[in-house]
Amino acid sequence: MQKEEIFKRIIDKAVLGGWQPQGILKGLLDGTLATGMETNFYKFILNSSDNAWYGYIFDIEFAKAVWGNKIHNAEKMRTTRDVCPDCGDAQVTTHISANYELCYEFHLRKLVIAEDKLKYLEKFVMT
Ligand SMILES: [Zn+2]
Q1: What is the 2 CA–ligand 1 centroid distance (Å)?
Q2: What is the domain count for the chain?
Q3: Helix count and strand count (H, E) for the chain
Q4: How far does the centroid of ligand 1 lie from the alpha carbon of residue 17, in Å?
Q5: Fewer Cβ atoms within 10 A, N terminus or C terminus of the chain?
Q6: How many whole angstroms from 94 Cα to the centroid of ligand 1?
Q7: Residue 3 and residue 118 in contact, taking contact as beta carbons nearer than 8 Å
Q8: pTM summary value
Q9: Is 127 contained in some domain?
Q10: Distance, CA 47 to ligand 1 centroid (Å)?
Q11: pLDDT digits 0-9 by tens, 23-75
Q12: CA distances (Å), 61 to each of 2, 54, 76, in order?
């Protein structure tokens, strides 16, 4: 999947989850700004030298909308192949604090240390 497509899809997922975009993105999504700019917008943000797109993916409300804020609890999963019933992710850590970590906290932590952040996000926008 292309980088812009992943970024667009994760934004769509956040909006579906209740996140409310502001500024240019809000205008693009609600149609009050010229249509046709949308594809360029995602590309532009991704290619900006100051990693402006981090402002979206590392926003707490954005992350809550994408992954939810229920407990990402390893105890809910009987085997390492099970998925968290709240965020749908199969990744389980054995670290004790994970038992009390919320889904969005777990994924934000993973996202911070991910070398390729779009690759990390991609698995949550596959359908
Ligand atoms: Zn979870």
Answers
A1: 26
A2: 1
A3: 7, 0
A4: 15
A5: C
A6: 14
A7: yes
A8: 0.81
A9: no
A10: 30
A11: 888 888 888 887 666 678 888 899 988 998 999 999 999 999 999 988 776 55
A12: 25, 13, 24
